[in-house]
Design brief:
- The chain contains 17 helices and 21 strands.
- It has 633 residues and is α+β, with helices and mostly antiparallel strands.
Amino acid sequence: MQIFNTLTRQKEEFVPQVPGEYRIYVCGPTVYNYIHIGNARPLCIFDILRRYLEYRGYKVTFVQNFTDIDDKIIRRANEEHVDFSEISERYIKEFWTDADGLNVRHATVNPKATENIDAIIHIISTLIEKGYAYEAGGNIYFDTSKLEKYYVFNDFKEEDLAVGVREGVEEDENKRNKADFVLWFTKSKFDDQELKWDSPWGVGYPGWHIECSCISMKNLGEYLDIHCGGIDNAFPHHTNEIAQSESYLGHPWCPQWCHVAHLNTEGGKMSKSKGNVVDPYVLAEKFGVDALRFFLLRTFPFGSDGNFSNELLIQTINMDLANDLGNLVSRTTAMVEKYFGGTLPAERESSDADDDLKQMASTLRDRYEAEMEHFQFQNALEQVFKTIQRANKYIDETAPWVLAKDEAAKDRLAEVLYNLVESITIGACLLKSFLPETADRILAQLNAGMREYDNLDKFGLYENGNKVTDKPEILFARLDAKEIMPKIDAIREAQKAEFEAEQKALGELPETTEESGEAIDIEAKPEIEYDDFMKMQFQVGEIISCEAVPKSKKLLCSQVKIGSQVKQIVSGIRKYYTPEEMVGKKVMVLVNLKPAKLAGVLSEGMLLCAEDAEGNLALMTPEKAMPSGAEIC
């Protein structure tokens, strides 16, 4: 099996370190909020990988954590005046609701960070003993200068990248190196810190990155086969995991890394404040669980960003699932029931007209496998649906309804319907990893069981005497976009209104004001020479992450990708934008502004904004699509 290894940036053989057994670790959710459809995509992708490997006969140990130690959990608990555990348990429950609703199987084990404090402390202690960690300003930091190479996922230089910390973690003046990151906090940002444990360094709590290293080693051993997650976690989270894990172990830890790209909407990255967040549970209820799974895997290439739209989802369901798959199963079972009482006779008459379909069905497994082995899941689905489409064409070519009128053609009719039933059975077995519920429904209608994977290249295993259902069911009904879209739009508007009401209650958003078309004048500044203007470098940047600056009601700290580099920029726009809303925006940046510290946080540039007469700010963004790094001139 080959995989595009995001660590080495090339395709490599995915060979388990223990033959016949795969050990997989997937970064789980930080449980402070609901998931959206963008989060659902990697859930489904890694679920399909696991199901496929198990169908092939491999033993899979699948570990996914719950991050229940995080500043966002503490902040939400403080806002709601409840215990932090109430927040984390609430959203763990909601996560299971969504995962179950997507037919995503539970991991072999789902450890929580709070359940592993002793093991985390042991790893940190060992890192200190080995000289890889030190104390500064009351916190314990990992010393990245001890590593031969720290930025393992890219070729960026240290000065081009932001400090590897998470929301609310200020750059500590006592840190030895810019990229050093926290292993253990004893200095809390909150007056009443509930998340705290005794440690050799004082009462405190672990940093974000250390939990995944601890949980993976505790449950999967010192050698991991593959680590999976979202592309936004490659730096700093996974970079830091590798650094601390291999320093602790003293040997290579995980050779293969798989990162899933973003799923956006036409309006950019999903954000509740934009009203473009899509709840997977709502979609599953509206369109069906397997229809949603199919769409997420069939429509978007594995390693590429994708743009979600309900219109595209409806189109995919109607064309591929209703017209092709659903129609084929419905017509086939209905004809077997109508012409043979549900049971096909053993006496059949073949023809050269059958050869193409038989060949496609008998070779489908190998074509499917070739794509799956290269992690091209969408192409594997395409191979199945090519066979489905060929079977539909075969019906038109052989015209069973015409054969049924000729008693002498009964054996020929039986062969035609048998070939259809057999082709559908093979296809359903291969669809099981993608559409588990639908595959079971198809096989039940045909009265056929799941076949061993090794037998899927053999045509003709459908047993004589099997009786198909006498009540064929519609697998996927065609959808009317004109009827569905107003309901979806209403849901999105309700989500946006709910979010804005919540943010206003917390003082995070200003009261909305009507847009004014009036022009305003400002005081003129002294003229400058052309050469002075040319000293300033303006470029388009893309905000890849954004966090609120602690103990500041005005500042946001953004990581901005500008060409091949990433700059950290602090801006006084928290009143007008949430961190969630900032991510994914293309902005105009003054790049060569001399770095300075704002509220103790380093800022390496300036985001350009416009200001109205009342002092309200709005980010300046390109009118048309422009790449990150494009020069503004």
